[in-house]
Amino acid sequence: MATIGTIIATASLALAACGGVPGERVDQIGTTEQAAVATNSLTSNSLTSNSLTSNALTSNSLTSNALTSNSLTSNSLTYNALHDPNARELLSYIVSCALPGNESIAITVQGTTYEYDGQIGLAPEWGEPNGRCGNACKEWVSACLLARLDYLGVTREISVRGDIPALQVSPQEAAAYTFREATYFGNVFDAPMPQRRYACLSPGQTEIPRVCGPTLRGCAVDVDASCDRVCGAPRPDGSFPNCRAGDGDRGDPGYHGSITVFLKP
């Protein structure tokens, strides 16, 4: 079960040797400790330019089935997508966002076994037998993926907060991570529509260098407004809930699964 509290997700992108069939390698992404924050280093290209989420059939195959080793490898569309290293990187973050720390999945592609650990536990139901990723799951996992993008692909610690028990913040974390960066929301799964990748700026901010680099122009996420304009009132932990795309008009789509990132000052 996911712990109610904060989670430190120490993600390692290095290949780690493990037991198993001789000659196989295990790419183990992520170990979980009870502590403070999540790490990020998901590259924009791995999210925006691979067949795991951008292809309509593969996307539907992924979210309509359980996030388990058997489901991933038994479906030919999903399995073929995982031949792409970018797709495997994305899968590692999907698993770490969705599943709790006591769960993991392993896949073998062309003789190499890759193992990915759950970490944050935003959608544990997806990893259950006959599980699937419904609308709420898609929103929370999408927001988590967007929050963990990094313009340079550098691993950094971030405090991820939102209106869900898995993201409850501790007093120690709140005291250490006081700079509110931005809020992320959207849906990267629902093909054939283009991925919906959004962020809003924390009040008073004009840039998101960690995710967008030196300018908002060409950023992997669409940044249109300040969070105090497009989201509900901030929660006690400083996170903005129920954010809307665009300029926040009632006709713009809203997302309950909104995640606000705090950094150390």
Description of the structure:
Helix content is 26%, strand content 23%. By secondary structure, it is an alpha+beta fold. The protein has one domain (8-263). The strands form 4 sheets. Strands 4-7-13-8-9-10 form a 6-stranded mixed sheet. The relative contact order is 0.16. Residues 1-36 have low confidence and may be disordered.
Task: Describe this structure in a few short sentences.
This protein is of the alpha+beta class and 265 residues long. 26% of the residues lie in helices and 23% in strands.
Tell me the layout of helices and strands.
Elements: E1 8-10, E2 26-29, E3 31-33, E4 38-40, H1 44-48, H2 51-54, H3 56-63, H4 69-74, H5 76-81, H6 85-98, E5 104-109, E6 112-117, H7 135-147, E7 156-161, H8 171-176, E8 179-187, E9 196-201, H9 209-212, E10 222-226, H10 227-230, E11 243-244, E12 254-255, E13 259-263
Parallel strand pairs: 2-6, 9-10
Antiparallel strand pairs: 1-3, 4-7, 5-6, 7-13, 8-9, 8-13, 11-12
Helix pairs in contact: 6-7
Question: Any descriptors?
Answer:
six-stranded mixed sheet, alpha+beta, disordered N terminus, globular, 13 strands, 265 residues
Indicate the radius of gyration in whole angstroms. 17 Å
Low-confidence stretches: 1-36
In the sheet with the most strands, the strands line up as 4-7-13-8-9-10
Average of the residue pLDDT scores: 83
- Kindly name the structural category: alpha+beta
Count of strand segments: 13
